[in-house]
Amino acid sequence: MADSMDQTFKITLRSQWFIVRENLKFIIVGTVGCELIITYYDPTLKPILPIVLVAGYTLISVIPCIIVHLQYLKYNNGMQVTIDKINRTITISTAEQEISIPFNRIRVVRIALMSSYYGDKFNQGFTPWECYQYALIQLQDGKQFIITCLLINNLKNFFKDLGIEVTKDRVFFPTVRMGRYKEKPLKKKKSADGW
Length: 195
Hints:
single chain; alpha+beta; four-stranded antiparallel sheet; 4 helices; 23% strand
């Protein structure tokens, strides 16, 4: 049974709200900006503005966000992360397995961040996928786990609040690149007959 000091994270619509929020900002700023530029420079382009905005927004924002989002769902859909601050453990649960990791067994946490999130202060980026980030948790025994921002929105502050040091990796596009990290997936639980 979870203690009152435990925190549990899983992917929900609420945990993904930050993506909608960032995309809404991008739509509003882009629409107003394009409207002002077109009205000022060439008002005759105003009739095609909606088509240009929808096509541009789809190419520049929606498609890259869908690519990153689907990849992050692949890694964390159905996963639950529980933090026990009293016993200083992270428990990662999937449909197949549950593993409890003491903080002192963590060798390194590497967080992949876009430039706008890399520093100590957040600087608004130019793209709506700037807010995507993921952490690779490497254990002393070689096991590795990917935790994405779909589970925990601000990974850098999350690990800092737990007292776990992180190594930040600046990335150009926030997809999980397995060429850089060789992940060992969670093993499936054995059934009662050992298979």
